[in-house]
Amino acid sequence: MNKRISRVGDIRVISLIYSSIIEIGDAVEATPNSRALAVQKEGAIFTDRDFPFNEFPVFTEPYPYFSKKITIDQERVPCNPYIDVKSVHIEGISSSSILQVGNLEYLDAESRVKHFRILREENDDHTDENEQ
Known about the structure:
The chain is mostly beta strands. Helix content is about 0%, strand content about 45%. It has no helices and 8 strands.
C-alpha cells in the first residue's frame, strides 16, 4: 500500500490528560487505556480507597470486540503523495485519545468512566417557608 506523507504547519493543544497521546510520526501500535471514577459526594471527605474499581461492573465486564475482521476490496490511486494541513487547534484531548500526524497500523483504545453522585438525606425537620 502506498502511504501518504502528512505535513502540518501548526499544532496547538491546550490540554492533554488521562492516558492521551500526541504522536508525531509513524507508529506500529498504540493501546491507550484509562479508568475513572467521577464521584460527587455532598458534604463529606473521601479518598480513592473508598471506591474500589472492582465494585463497579463497568470496569470488570469484558469489552465487546468484533468477532470477524471486515475486508473491503478497493483500489486507491493517490493523486498527491502529501496530506497538507495548515493548522490544527484542539481545546482538549482526554481519556485514551490520540492526536497523530502519521501512520498507525494498530489501535486498541479503551476508556471506562463511572460517574455518580452521593447526596445527603434531607432533614425531616426541615419545613419550607412557603408551605406555612
